[in-house]
Amino acid sequence: MRGSRRSGCRERRRWLDGAAKVSVFRRVVRAGLSGSIMRQSCAPVSGGFRADPNGSRMTESGWFAEWRIVAKHPCWSISRRTGIAMIFSALMMLLQQPEPIILDEVLLLPPAEAGDLVLSGKTHGPIVSVHEVNANMKPPYVVQLQLVEEAKRSGWGCSRTRWTANFQTNNGHTLGRAVLKNTTGAPEIKLAPENSCGQSDYVYLNPGLNKEAGFAALMWLEGVLAGSDGQRFICADNTGSGLCDDVGMIRQKLAALQPWAVTPKKGHIELWLGTPGEAVTALRFQPRVPELIDIERRIPPPF
Fold first, then answer.
1. How far, in Å, CA of 252 to CA of 156, rounded?
2. What torsion do the CA atoms of 154, 155, 161, 162 make, to the nearest 10 degrees?
3. How far apart are CA 119 and CA 111, in angstroms?
């Protein structure tokens, strides 16, 4: 007898799924409006649900019929609280999958709105400019946007964050339909008089260097350009520019260059001067021996 009830249960499930053609999702959601489905022992059921001979439509229609599929099934019983929880969980799973952010849609927005969209979920300041990175400096099928924050007073000058957003598209798709993959932020600083930040001449801080150390390095560079009797130079020039001809030439050529990055390097602080992608003039010093200045001008390796 126990075996026959189990067999009947299996047969009834096949009949409901095959003849009634009601999807699992509709069963769960609609049954959950009044309760949830919990397995229990198979038992005969009075009344019931019937399908038309071709098995494509229900003879009982609407909510009542679909409710009876579950509520009167011999292998299931209903609990209202669990049913509501099941529906809520399903909806939350759908809501947690955000819409992809498309490059063309971002470029149509004003900078502030583009920043709010691309940097959603990240702490950031107002975005004042958005531009694409040079196409020669990125991998295939990747578009990089830089989103620059509004600068604010910090320490001996101004600071801001420059965000890089990576968009990627599959081969064969237009770059305009590229989808946002990730974003990274990098701090930038510059020495500036009070209440005069502006949006140019900022210096990138490489990882491992805080803003205070970055400002100190820029002040050290100003001291090098101003000159001092105690300063000693070690100079190497791989470009033949005449940088290392004499101390006067060193200061003259350095004064014509803009610093663009500061990085910690094996106990030294290194500043990069010039234009990114062109010849690099690197100045190194040890904070304990700031009067010893190591200079190297070199051609960066190709990408």
1. 25
2. 120
3. 12
Give me the residues paired with residue 189 across strands: 159, 203
Q: What is the pLDDT of residues 225-237, one digit of tens each?
A: 998 878 999 999 9
pLDDT digits (tens, 9 = 90+) for 235-272: 999 998 899 999 989 999 999 999 999 999 888 999 99
Length reported for the chain: 303
How do residues 143-188 score in pLDDT, each as one tens digit?
Answer: 999 999 999 998 899 999 999 999 998 766 788 889 999 999 999 9
Render the burial of 34-72: b for 16+ CB within 10 Å, e for the rest.
ebbbeeeebeeeeeebebeeeeeebeeeeeebbbbbbbe
**What's the gap between Cα 278 and its chain centre?**
29
Cβ–Cβ < 8 Å for 38, 78: yes
Cβ atoms of residues 31 and 78 within 8 Å: yes
Amino acid at 98: P
Rounded to 5°, angle at Cα 183 from 181 and 185: 170
Q: 267, exposed or middle or buried, with CB in 10 Å at 0-12, 13-18, 19+?
A: exposed
Burial zone of 198 (CB within 10 Å; 0-12 exposed, 13-18 middle, 19+ buried): exposed
Residue 169 DSSP code: -
pTM (2 decimals)?
A: 0.65
